[in-house]
Amino acid sequence: MALEAGTLRVTLQYAKGIKDCDWFGRQDPYAKLRVGSQEVRSRMVRDGGRNPVWDETFDFNVINENTLEITIMDEDTVVRDDLIGTCSVSLARVREQGVDRVQAPLTAGKKAQRQEGFVALALSFTPNSRLRPGAAGYGAYGAPPYGAPAPAYGYPPAMAPCASCGHGAAAAAPYYAPPPPQAYAQPPYGHAATFAYGSTSYAPPPPPSAPSAPSAPPAPPLAPPPYGAQAQSSYYPPPPSYYPVAPTPSYGAPYAAPVPYYRS
């Protein structure tokens, strides 16, 4: 059966017969208490020696933790603090019965593990099921319902006129909400359209001109000649200037044609 979650209250009363770590004078003990990841420190007892008295109370939230760990230290100002002793206290009894008183023996030394003195504690436990994750009221934040409408925002409130702004009558002019948008109506043909901003009127655009006569379609391609017929050549003779001109002899008259000779 799982133990119930709740609040553990620990009263650190006193220690008796603990180890003395100072050679000269009396030691200054203090305690560190730890439950799970929660750790607290008690006040330092000046010149507490081997029998310091604290009478301090600490609270811890307990869910699944079952052990209280205590460490007694001697505070030094010149060197690091000395370890006096440690102890562990089971929380099973106080979580079942609600209260418990313990005199936990201190174990001094890291190797010898010898006991020297004890620490007196008073424990109390108050169940609180809300400390368990997933319990109702544990502080979980639920998601808003799906499809919730977004809040509507209206126009901002009117600003009060400022008499000391130094802008004259314009500073004291009241603020009016903008008018709702209006549908635009097409004016009849031939009338100038008037716009809301200013008194300038603009004439409508001129009517479109009549379409011009369509151009003549291109001539269809020539039909090919019948099979076997010689195709008409599209070759054109070269111009007269293309042929060379016979040179004119530079001396005498041109040769006459020879007289034909006939035999009798």
TrEMBL record:
<dbReference type="InterPro" id="IPR035892">
    <property type="entry name" value="C2_domain_sf"/>
</dbReference>
<dbReference type="InterPro" id="IPR000008">
    <property type="entry name" value="C2_dom"/>
</dbReference>
<protein>
    <recommendedName>
        <fullName>C2 domain-containing protein</fullName>
    </recommendedName>
</protein>
<dbReference type="InterPro" id="IPR052981">
    <property type="entry name" value="Ingression_C2_domain"/>
</dbReference>
<feature type="domain" description="C2">
    <location>
        <begin position="1"/>
        <end position="106"/>
    </location>
</feature>
<feature type="compositionally biased region" description="Pro residues">
    <location>
        <begin position="203"/>
        <end position="227"/>
    </location>
</feature>
<dbReference type="Pfam" id="PF00168">
    <property type="entry name" value="C2"/>
</dbReference>
<feature type="region of interest" description="Disordered">
    <location>
        <begin position="203"/>
        <end position="232"/>
    </location>
</feature>
